[in-house]
## 1
Amino acid sequence: MIKIVIIGGGASGLMAAVQAARKGAQVTLLEQNEKTGKKILATGNGRCNMTNLYQDSSCYRSENPAYPWKIIEKFPLASTLPFFYELGIYTRDRNGWIYPYSDQASSVAQVLEMEARHLKVRIKTREEVTDIQCLPEGFQIFTKTWNYPCDRVILCCGSHASSVEGSSAAGYELAKKLGHHIVEPMPALVALKGKGNYFSRWAGTRMEGILHLEIDKKITCKERGEILFTDYGISGIAVFQISRYAVRAISQGHTVTCHLDLMPDFSREELSRFLKERQASCSYKSMKELLVGFIPLKMISVLVPSKGTLEDIVSNIKDWVLPIRDAWSLRQAQVCSGGVDTKELNENLESLLHPGLYFAGELVDVDGPCGGYNLQWAWSSGAVAGKAAADASDTERRSL
Ligand SMILES: Cc1cc2nc3c(=O)[nH]c(=O)nc-3n(C[C@H](O)[C@H](O)[C@H](O)COP(=O)(O)OP(=O)(O)OC[C@H]3O[C@@H](n4cnc5c(N)ncnc54)[C@H](O)[C@@H]3O)c2cc1C
């Protein structure tokens, strides 16, 4: 029987454990926290946005852009939903964003652990892995108190994004010691800090808008959704979606600017005509007063210059230019971009440097936007690595 040790009992580690045990392997799961699945509990504001009905290759990002989809295709949405249904998760669809019907992230963590225990996975909590040694006949896994010999190992340590207990960079260190290269981990799904001294005036406002990300004078992507205006710049889902590109561009010394369209349902001409009509029918109103009713008050004070024409206001509403100086740190980010370089992995997430060593989850250089894509990556990569590690025919082939 193949002995597998899985390091990290989060989303990808629990999935890998279930899949490997179902294929008949003897699985031990080592988790440093006192319980498994802590980050799952924090997902989707405690409701767990576990996947998304809309899937294509552009939903997954990596320095090696073709890689993530090859893994997702092996355990896609069409495998994920029945897998969780069988475990007891009936789902709820919010515009394609999928949640457990209970609206409790704990349900997802619980059914995974129940299934792992049912399949006799040995779950060892408060076991922090400190080292991995490659032996000619397998691996030796060291924790502070014990060591575990095994035939295969799956590293599922996640990233150090967020302040959820257990978020750590340990996985990168273990991978580096084994000779793997790490694409520098950086915050993704994070708020952006702007350049300017007026942010206290708009702080606390939310608006639906379109955000265009400009890098060195070239628009690279756009996103429509809620923008939250803060005392340091901008946050909200639309900002999170483009943030990984902004962060990586800033780190490379590029000039990053956000262009905000704060009335996306109006063209410039329509907005100009609309304001002129209002001006004509309410000639007693100031420019600022004319905007009351369709722009939040705090935003009016920013968008209407003390001196300026109606066309200046239209320009500000349709294209507010916000230079970006920085982003919040990894601790404030939901996920991280970067990780174990996929060029050193085969199409089952197995190391090309050490056969029998596998990786899954956020530790790998793959990230997704908000909407359930990061968990889908954790489910798919965990399933692919777990099944492949437990594949007995693979052992025979390798020992020939
Ligand atoms: C606040 C928040 C909300 C989120 N919401 C969503 C959402 O709604 N939808 C979505 O798709 N994604 C969401 N994400 C992202 C998603 O949670 C992660 O991408 C996903 O959990 C990653 O799974 P993982 O298995 O790679 O890592 P994790 O779930 O972080 O698991 C890694 C585990 O490894 C353990 N570990 C680390 N090092 C060691 C070691 N040396 N020894 C032993 N154990 C170790 C850790 O304690 C941890 O339990 C959210 C993230 C955050 C922070």
Note: The chain has 14 helices and 19 strands.
## 2
Amino acid sequence: MTATKPSPETQDLADPAALVARMRAGERRATSRAVTELERLSSAAPRLLEAMRPHLGRALVIGFTGPPGAGKSTLVNAYTRYLREENKQIGIIAVDPSSPISGGAILGDRIRMTATLDDDGVFMRSLASRGHLGGLCPAAVRVIDAFDAAGKDIVLLETVGTGQSEIDVAEVADVRIVVSAPGLGDDIQAMKSGLLEVADILVVNKADREGAERTAQQLKGALSLRSGPRANVPVLKVTATTGDGVPALAVAIDDFATANVAKDATVRRRRRARYLIARAAADLVGERVRHGADGELDRLADAVLAGTLLPADAAGKILRGM
Ligand SMILES: Nc1nc2c(ncn2[C@@H]2O[C@H](COP(=O)(O)OP(=O)(O)OP(=O)(O)O)[C@@H](O)[C@H]2O)c(=O)[nH]1
Ligand SMILES: [Mg+2]
């Protein structure tokens, strides 16, 4: 009998510490393997995370969110080029809200993120936010850890700003950049409500287009209505396609990080862990409400209909029964 030769995957995973060492030495295949295992939360993931733990906490996570088509991918590409001039090691995570089947946006990102091609200092991974309604997926947090363990200095995280995702980005990223552009119409209205709340820096991209200055003034106007630190959020005009304005954005990011990002890695990583717990809790409650305790749920629904119980109080009852 001949023993079957172990596959490269099995070999990679047999010794997680060796895999992490190879990641840190810049071996792309090793990083790719780790990212895939963590993304899928495979059976190898816990041991891998254990081997990574001593190396976690260095990477700065910068989130880019904003309406579809604002130019987030193009900007991430331009900023990556800038950071590569400074010899920074970069990890990019693009969360694709579309179905995992279409794949269209992922292909588009690859085309726009040309800085990631043929450069060993850049590693990019697209994730589908399956079932998470456009929100960030918990898998993204694990991929951040993989990039961090691989020695990336900066992780750039792109998500489309729809509903849940801006809240998620706010919790996960150390620096939050909201990207808008002229001509997005009603999206500016939407940004005023949700996205503005989470922005550390506002970018008006497509500054080469008519209306960019007006968009910038509108955003400044909306910001001036708030009090406290949110009133001082910088609004920067950028042309991602040419790179105009990217150095000024880089300075603004550095300034923000120096002044506001906790030096203590535990503080930053704790926020991400809290996000993961909250997401898991929300999933559990959702499961329970949808699949468990049908009779109880109907009873509570009738009470809500009768006006004797508020939906939030009904949710509290379900939670206490868990
Ligand atoms: N004129 C101009 N066009 C730009 C600029 N930046 C991006 N674009 C174009 O805008 C379109 C959308 O750019 P993307 O970078 O894919 O935008 P996105 O926000 O990542 O889009 P989604 O990920 O689909 O939400 C592309 O056709 C880009 O070439 C810019 O600075 N000026
Ligand atoms: Mg994009």
Note: Residues 99-105 have pLDDT under 50 and may be disordered.
